[in-house]
Amino acid sequence: MSSLYPDESYCTTDIGRLLFQPKNEWAVTGKVIEATDVKQITGTHTDYVIEIKCVPRNNIELDDRFFTITSRFRELNRLHASLSKLHKQLYLRGAFPHFAAPRLLGSCEPSVIAERRRCIDDFLAFVLDSEVLRKARVLQEWVEKATERPNSGQVATPSSLLYEGVNIMDAPNM
């Protein structure tokens, strides 16, 4: 099975199709917005909530789209290893970012979580900036579980559009 999808028809989700678009059409960024500890009978682990923001570059008629994915460090570590291997095999430019080492004990300490968040942010920035890696099968399979959240833009009201003052400095705070 191929490591890269040949065309966008293989993508099963909206975010997959957006990732398949060229960078000059859709700018895609990702960052960790929350890290929560999950306690289970078998132990404690940290879930990282990742927000992927897709911004159209050439079309003002399209709105920004936001997707969220909740993922464990173990899944992200596997994704990093797979994409790092693919990066080497394809002889792509740039140094693939370093990833935090897995830890069995102390993985829920604030310093470890802060380091992991930084590494995940760097990793996502590198991968989502690469048009080739955005087409990787493993990345497409990982983003399949993303859910789109509605754009929380401000709603225009009649009072926010009208101002009959003399000076812009006299405008009420909105």
Description of the structure:
The chain has 174 residues and is α+β, with helices and mostly antiparallel strands. The protein has one domain (8-170): PX Domain, CATH 3.30.1520.10. It is 32% helix and 23% strand. It is built from five helices and four strands. It has a four-stranded antiparallel beta sheet with strand order 1-2-3-4. β2 and β3 form a beta hairpin. α2 packs parallel to α3 (110-129). The longest helix is centred in the last third of the chain and has 20 residues, at 110-129. The radius of gyration is 20 Å and the shape is globular. The mean pLDDT is 88.
Please mark out the parts with pLDDT under 50 across 5 or more consecutive residues, or reply none.
none
Task: Give the strand order, joined by hyphens, for the main sheet.
Answer: 1-2-3-4
Mean pLDDT: 88
> Class, according to the CATH hierarchy?
Alpha Beta
Which structural class should the secondary elements be placed in?
A: alpha+beta
CATH H-level superfamily: Phox-like domain
Q: Bin the helical content.
A: 25-40%
What is the CA-CA span between the terminal residues?
55 Å
Beta-strand proportion: 15-25%
Number of strands: 4
What is the H/E order? HEEEHHHEH
Q: Judging by the overall fold, what is the CATH architecture?
A: 2-Layer Sandwich
